[in-house]
Every structure is written in structure tokens, then in C-alpha cells.
Write a structure and sequence with these properties.
Elements: H1 8-11, H2 22-29, E1 37-38, H3 50-59, H4 72-82, E2 89-92, H5 95-106, E3 112-116, H6 121-129, E4 133-137, H7 146-151, E5 157-163, H8 175-184, E6 190-194, H9 209-215, E7 219-224, E8 237-241, H10 243-252, H11 260-271, H12 273-296, E9 301-302, E10 308-312, H13 319-329, E11 332-333, E12 335-337, E13 342-349, H14 353-369
Parallel strand pairs: 1-11, 3-4, 3-5, 5-6, 6-7
Antiparallel strand pairs: 2-8, 7-8, 9-10, 10-13, 12-13
Helix pairs in contact: 3-11, 4-11, 5-6, 5-10
Bound molecules: pyridoxal-5'-phosphate.
Pyridoxal-5'-phosphate binds next to helix 5.
Length: about 375
């Protein structure tokens, strides 16, 4: 008999599928890397802010030493920016790290974690990885059904993941609705409010989740430097929560989980408000252009508050993969979302104007040929 290594709940995990790298698509399809447009991983099309590049260059001489395990300077900058004590902040190797650590810190094997259908894939992975039970609450119009999520809480529920805006659907929950939800969640259940895309929200949609952290000891707000701040490759995310939750995270966090260059770059990016504003403005402009093209092509899309749009490219369950392949052959990388149970859809990251145009032209050509 062959032995099976690892717990059955780990063997049952379907690994995370990342966006295809440009180099891989160039090799596979015989294309020139420079001609390829990647709109697959919700990265900032402006790349990394110059201020962060400069900060990294200066920090490079420190690389013979370990990073500051407590990230004093970055935490001080975050503390000042968000108006919370540094002791309420935990850094992660990307916010993905925060989501994983939170699941392991708050939940025991066999207990349950609630998240919404079509919400970010890492919630399912984190749940499965610790042998917890997933309660997946059906989405309403591709977004979270908060009332149903409340109703789904059982005696053994220890954590609820909420993504706002959500990836891959881009749906958004208004502040007052979230606040009413937080008010009703029992204090024995932690809520991770994942705000990876919050910096893209227009002024009128913003809400003060940090004020909620002060009010709700069971709330953890998760943010990232990967999206609007433009530092996806460096891997920096952070959590803001009261000391009881923060203390638990700190017990599990790897001591040096955010490297020296990443800490230096994040401080610079945090203070680079001009870059942040430019990123949000470019995103809003690209969203208008993409959705205008979808309207013209009579394609259904989910209104999005992120830096991406989910669009339905056909009515049969092979549509997403078929159109994706046709786009890849034309050097355009987007994200199929069949793994989310959305096989008729593709998720398009909003790019630079010329990247958006290249995608629209390739899509028009693909659909015309169908
Ligand atoms: C909703 C959401 N949360 C968290 C993350 C994790 O991002 P990172 O680990 O780069 O901070 C992503 C990345 O796409 C996301 O879409």
C-alpha cells in the first residue's frame, strides 16, 4: 500500500492559480515579450513609484543584516497615517500573509470560517489549509449577502472574511451596511475586512473602517501595498486591529516576514500621495473606457470598484477559456475565472490607456471571429 503524506485536508487543496507571467506567454506562443500586455493580476500599470525605487536603492547597503523584525519606521509611518498606535499594526509578506496568519491565529481545526461565494480565493485556501470547515454563503448579484452571512454563523464559527471591494467581482458594500453588519456579529467571531483595493474608491464611497477597529475588538482591517501603492513584487501588507487580535497574529508571524527593501519602499510609497492620486485617476479613466467598450459589444459586466472588471464573454461554459486562449495568441493576458465557478467570465485588470486599447482590439477581433 502506498502511504499518503500530509493531512487529507491539505491533499484536497487545489493550488492557487496565478496570472500567467509575460515570459511564459512569450515562450508558449512564440511572441515578443515587449509586445505582450498583461492585465491578469490586478497590478498597478504605472509600476513602482520612483520614490520607492529611490528608497530601496538607499536601503540596499543594509542588506547584509536582517530586517528590523518590528519594522519600527514603517509601523510609525502607518501609525501616523491611520491614527492608531503602532501596537495595533501587524505587517505581512503581502496581505495574503495577513489573511493566512489570521485564519491560523483565530481558528482551530474543525471550527468554521464564513466567506461569500465568488470572494477572494485565498479565503478558501486558508480555511482548507488548517482543516477548518468552510461555510460559503451564496452571493447576491456577485457580491456579499451580509444578512445571509450573519444567519450562517454557527456555534463553532470563529472567523468571517469580507472583501470590500471584492476580487474577482469588484462588488462593493457601502459603509453603513458594513457597520450594521459588524454591530450584529458576535464578539466571539473575528471579522477580517480585506480592503486590498480601498485606495481606488472615489471619495463619496469611502468609509472610516479604522474608527470601527477602535469600536469592535473582533475586527481586523487588512490592507496592501500591492495595488494602488504599486509594490506587488515586494510583498507588503498590513493589519490594523486591537491588541488582543494583534497579539495573536504576532505569535504566528515569521519574525522577518517583511524584508528590508520592502519596508523602505513602503514608507516612501505611503508618503507618495501624488502617485496614489495618479493611480486612482488612471484607474477611473480606464474603467470608463473598458466598460464603454463592453457596452458597445453588448457584453455583460459587473460594476467594479477595484482596478479590474469582470466581463461575461459568452453564454456557454467554455467561453472564458476559449476567449482567453484567443487573447493569449494575440499577446493579451487576462484572467480566466473558471476556478471561481465563473467559466463564462474573464477578469480584466485595468491597464494603461494603450494596454486597454490593445485588449479591446484583441477582444473585438476574437468576438467578430466567433
Ligand atoms: C481581495 C484581495 N485581498 C488580498 C490580496 C492579496 O494581495 P497581496 O498579498 O499582494 O497583498 C488580493 C490580491 O489580489 C486581493 O485581491
Amino acid at each position: 500500500m502506498t502511504a499518503s503524506f500530509g493531512p487529507s485536508y491539505v491533499r484536497a487543496i487545489a493550488p492557487y492559480v496565478a496570472g500567467k507571467p509575460i515570459s511564459e506567454v512569450a515562450r508558449e506562443f512564440g511572441l515578443d515579450e515587449a509586445s505582450i500586455v498583461k492585465l491578469a493580476s490586478n497590478e498597478n500599470p504605472l509600476g513602482m513609484p520612483e520614490s520607492a525605487q529611490h528608497a530601496m536603492a538607499q536601503a540596499a547597503s543594509e542588506l547584509g543584516r536582517y530586517p528590523d523584525a518590528n519594522a519600527f519606521e514603517l509601523k510609525s509611518a502607518l501609525s501616523e497615517r491611520y491614527g492608531v498606535p503602532a501596537e495595533w499594526i501587524t505587517l505581512g509578506n503581502g496581505s495574503n500573509d495577513i489573511l493566512e496568519i489570521a485564519a491560523h491565529a483565530f481558528v482551530e481545526k474543525g471550527q468554521s470560517i464564513i466567506y461569500a461565494q465568488y470572494s477572494f480565493a485565498v479565503y478558501a485556501l486558508a480555511t482548507q489549509g488548517l482543516g477548518a470547515r468552510a461555510i460559503v454563503v451564496p452571493a447576491v448579484r456577485y457580491g456579499h449577502d451580509l444578512d445571509a452571512m450573519l444567519a450562517a454563523i454557527t456555534d463553532d464559527t470563529r472567523l468571517i472574511f469580507v472583501a470590500n471591494p471584492n476580487n474577482p467581482t469588484g462588488t462593493f458594500i457601502e459603509g453603513p451596511k458594513l457597520e450594521a453588519f459588524l454591530d450584529k456579529v458576535p464578539r466571539s467571531v473575528a471579522v477580517v475586512l480585506d480592503e486590498a483595493y480601498t485606495e481606488y474608491l472615489p471619495q463619496e464611497k469611502r468609509y472610516d473602517s479604522i474608527a470601527w477597529v477602535r469600536r469592535y475588538p473582533n475586527l481586523l482591517v487588512s490592507r496592501t501595498f500591492s495595488k494602488a501603492f504599486g509594490l506587488a513584487g515586494l510583498r507588503v501588507g498590513f493589519a490594523i486591529a486591537q491588541p488582543e487580535l494583534t497579539d495573536l497574529l504576532n505569535r504566528l508571524r515569521q519574525p522577518f516576514n517583511v524584508n528590508t527593501l520592502a519596508q523602505a519602499a513602503a514608507i516612501a510609497a505611503l508618503n507618495d500621495t501624488a502617485f496614489l492620486e495618479k493611480s486612482a485617476a488612471l484607474n477611473a479613466q480606464g474603467y470608463r473606457r473598458l466598460t464603454e467598450a463592453f457596452d458597445k459589444l453588448c457584453l455583460e459586466y459587473v460594476p467594479s470598484d477595484g482596478n479590474f472588471v469582470l466581463v461575461r464573454v459568452g453564454n456557454d461554459d467554455s467561453a472564458g477559456n476559449r476567449v482567453n486562449l484567443a487573447l493569449l495568441k494575440q499577446g493579451v493576458i487576462v484572467r480566466p475565472v473558471g476556478n471561481y465557478g465563473l467559466p463564462q467570465w474573464l477578469r480584466i485588470t485595468i491597464g494603461l490607456p494603450e494596454e486597454n486599447e490593445a485588449f479591446i482590439a484583441a477582444l473585438e477581433k476574437t468576438l467578430a471571429a466567433a
